[in-house]
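Quick one: structure tokens for this chain, please?
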Amino acid sequence: MRISSFSILLLSAHALFAQTPVLFDGGTVNGVSFAAGQPVAPGSIASIFGNSLAASLAQADSVPLSTQMEDVSVTMNGIATPLFFVSPGQINVQVPWNVLSGDTETGTATVVVTRGNSSSAPQSVQIAPVAPAVYTLGSDGVGNAVAVNPEAPSQHPSA
């Protein structure tokens, strides 16, 4: 059996472009605090960390948010998840409001990232009714909060 150069090139290209996304253990976290081991809430922003999640950077450019970006999609408990941002190492999503069934307030969601025709192994994340977090000026969760009053001009804390 003879394998042509074209067949080898085709197989190499497929291997290069068909990378399977890998989610880090505990890699789905609150998108504001990035606190490990903490639940996320329906409607909140969550960040998913891993490898080969997307081929390049892309961000949402429309409202309502799309559930597919750069050939990447995410499901939580099988529900398509709105995407804010995708990159090779991080995806930011809005947790679906109906991520838990019926009147269930707490539970576990299974997260799967699909890139092209390849899907990650499922990872679990805890869901709670609320999961508050505050953006801070230092982006580390410590110090002054980033707060906006839409009816007043921008003000900064005085030193």
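The two ends are 76 Å apart (CA to CA).
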